[in-house]
Amino acid sequence: MEKLKYERPFIKKLNAGLMNKFGTRTEYTPHTHIDGVAVKELVAKYGSPVFVISEKQIRRNYQNAVRAFKTRYPKVQFAWSYKTNYINAVCNVFHQEGSWAEVVSGFEYQKAKGNGVPGNKIIFNGPDKTVADLELAINDGAMIHIDHFDELYELQELLTRLNKKARVAIRVNMDTGIYPMWDRFGFNYESGQAWNAITKIMASDNLELTGLHCHIGTFMLSTAAYGVAAAKLSDLAMNIKSRFGKIIQYLDLGGGFPSANTLKGSYLPGADIVPSIDEFAEVITSTLLNYGYKQDELPLLILETGRALIDDAGYLLGSVLATKRLSDGRRATIMDFGVNILFTAFWYDHKISPAQEFTHHTEDMVLYGPLCMNIDVVRESISLPLLNKGDQVVVHKVGAYNMTQWMQFIQMRPNVVMIDVNGNPHLIRNKETIDTLHDMEVLPDYLKKFEL
Amino acid sequence: MKLNKNLAVSETGFIFNPTSGDSFTANEIGTEIINLMKESKSIADIKTALLDKYDVEGNQLEKDVDDFMVLLRDNNLIQYER
Ligand SMILES: Cc1ncc(COP(=O)(O)O)c(C=O)c1O
């Protein structure tokens, strides 16, 4: 006789009238396929855990963002924020769509260049640019966004020495009504520091001020803050025009639009509270259009949107290592991925779905990662079907920052796969192996031998 | 270990404890275990019966049934004799 399909025995007390505080039903509808490819197949071929990126979703997000801005304003350019996800395949999907590159370090700059982005379409941000980085950027004609006075002076000296000119912008920080204010990057608007930097640049022979930049924060829930930012940058641009007769070519409003993830401690799911790209576009473009620029002097609007364009295109597939019961009676499920590769578990209550069919029984549990560390918690409380060792889950909206901020600690970084628009998976980053470690280590001869 | 024999168990896995007024929902195999316990079957016999019937490894079943007993105890449905 054939044996019956097994499910772990389970009983749950019914609490009449009590709302389930552990999340919504949708969290446990099974998610068996990604862009038509079976999760089971992906795990069998590429291992578990594995990151999966939907090329289709990236393009959809990008085209939607471009539409939101271009239908409202004549001159718009996106620049892909490399730090958000700098796997070359991902960057090149953005470049194919027409995006420039935004980088914040020497190696990100090299990556953009290596991907074939022309120097004059690379925006070089950040407080840490070495002299060698700057020299490269100068020679390539990149857009150098100055972060502090030390950099401004260093750049001037370098240009004098090289007898060259550079196109520059300054990063401006300001009060947009958002707390905390990001005033550690760039020059402050309210204190007059930004204007001071502008005057110094205008007085310099080898610096050409082509733009003004700001990045007011990340996962911003206020559209109004962008209106303030656009107005303050415009105020500077107008003053530069009237004082020096110089027309600023572009305003770069940075990134910061939220994805549909749910922030920790938020009662409502992210998808219900985050403003849409259209709402941000409306505030920014209407501020610019109403600011009083002459028609032919409207600045190019640059956006360095990261998170909002990639988060929902990324999935993490993982498996259950074990289940156990904690001393206080709660169930604990141990996954083969943790905060080592899912850094955003510190910020978000990630939506997690089982990857296989289940009965309607669910239980509340803590989801732990595989690290031998107390901080390794993926979800403090989540309601999921009865998971068993070997079952798979899909973590949603993990495309931003995880594949750059992940750490190689106790476990190595896993494979990353991209599913193309025709539904074919491609390996785009190899998982690390013991060789990855050994390639970088140097063992002094005298430490090679020991006896135990 | 003793199951509260007054428990009302429906075929659909709805369980009512008249002593405390609590109600519960159990899945199919959970309901089956409770019914077998009501018939005073021993835990060892129950495990053997389930092993014959379901597609599951012995270790897994052992672990899960033991865990189920903890759940029953936590919900005051069984008492351990001392
Ligand atoms: C200068 C700059 N631009 C753009 C971004 C991308 O931001 P987001 O992913 O919030 O859109 C960042 C992220 O920190 C940044 O520092």
What global shape of chain B is seen? globular
What is the CATH third-level topology name of the largest domain in chain A?
TIM Barrel
Assembly context of the chains: heterodimer
- Structural class call of chain A reads alpha/beta
| Global morphology of chain A | globular
β content of chain A, as a range? 15-25%
What's the number of extended β-strand segments of chain A?
21
- CATH fourth-tier homologous superfamily of the largest domain in chain A: Alanine racemase
Which strand-content bin applies to the residues of chain B? 15-25%
* Number of distinct beta strands of chain B: 5
Summarize the structure in words.
The complex is a heterodimer of chains A (452) and B (82). By secondary structure, chain A is an alpha/beta fold. Chain A folds into 2 domains: 33-52 and 313-432, Lyase, Ornithine Decarboxylase, Chain A, domain 1 (Beta Barrel), CATH 2.40.37; 55-311, Alpha-Beta Barrel (TIM Barrel), CATH 3.20.20. Chain A is 29% helix and 23% strand. Chain A is globular and about 90 Å long. In chain B, a hairpin with a 4-residue loop joins strand 2 and strand 3 (14-17). Chain B is built from 3 helices and 5 strands; from the N terminus they run E-E-E-E-H-H-H-E. The N and C termini of chain B lie close together (9 Å). The mean pLDDT of chain B is 88. The structure holds pyridoxal-5'-phosphate. The site of pyridoxal-5'-phosphate (PLP) has 16 residues of chain A, from helix 11.
